[in-house]
Amino acid sequence: MASRVPLIYGASAFGAKGTIATRIHDLAECQKSVDYFVGKGYGVFDTSRIYGDGTCEEYLGQLDLRGAAVDTKAWVANPGDHTPAKLRESIEASLKALAPHKIRVFFLHVPDRSVPYEETLRGVNELYKEGLFEEFGLSNYPAWEVAEMATLAKANGWVRPTVYQGLYNALERHVEAELFPCIRKHGMRFHGFSPLARGLLAGTSIASPAHGSRWDINSSPMAAGLRAKYQDYEAAFQQLSESLTRYKVTGAEAALRWLQHHSLLTAEDAILIGASSLHQLEVNVKACEGGPLPDEVVKLLEEAWTTYKGRAPPYFR
């Protein structure tokens, strides 16, 4: 049975050994995950120019995606990366790496506030008119900037953003208060990432993370920032996981089923799920295809969110 909310494979774990946060380095293993995911009836893979230092896109380009689509994103490494010229460089590099696959949704991964949004949107529109992607998306922008960009695009007759990719899970729900009303007003879908709160809802230990994971201070440049943001809350996540055992539900399963049946997501939206192995992918997909949670578990998650929300990080950058 397909999930109520469609799934997108977050492929950031694919890539060359020694690159940021990649976990699956063998193309044959990547292909197994692709075959399983597409075989289950899902048809979109998500990547970014930054993932695996560009090797994630290269891996996807070498895989048989069996007709599935690819979404990718333009990163901001330096101020000015969202000028029209730099955006062209980014998407052309992505298309070269992904070939023969095309780009479905082209996202601006994070804001580049050094460039006027009119200039950025004009550049995106030129790329769209050339047929380099099918849809335009935003990620990690606050609601007020989403509204500004959607309004500017409409007023100028440029391609409008139709998708927002953002942080959303059972214990990080800040998108609900202002972002969801904004994107719904502007006719945008929502793609939620980090459904397991960077793995914390699946029992990841910040103190002793798996080698090569995003939390590994020895291999991931993002580890220090993540630890600073989340380490004070690790005990709360662990306590929730322990409480869930009374209902014979794992933290990961509860988190994924909550998004499917108890969140604000609709069947027009999507949930990004990632995995560091085929087995983990199978477990996550199975959880997403499960039914609604027992009322007691939903109440437990609501109480956890009420306790945690004052300290939860913002959804935007």
UniProtKB/TrEMBL annotation:
Pfam families: Aldo_ket_red
Domain NADP-dependent oxidoreductase: start-end pairs: 7-305
InterPro entries cross-referenced by the UniProt entry: AKR_Detox_Biosynth, NAD(P)_OxRdtase_dom_sf, NADP_OxRdtase_dom
Gene3D superfamilies to which the protein is assigned, alphabetical: NADP-dependent oxidoreductase domain
Keyword annotations: Oxidoreductase
Stored SUPFAM superfamilies: NAD(P)-linked oxidoreductase
Molecular-function GO term, any one: oxidoreductase activity
UniProt-recorded name of the protein: NADP-dependent oxidoreductase domain-containing protein
Taxonomic lineage from the root: Eukaryota, Fungi, Dikarya, Basidiomycota, Agaricomycotina
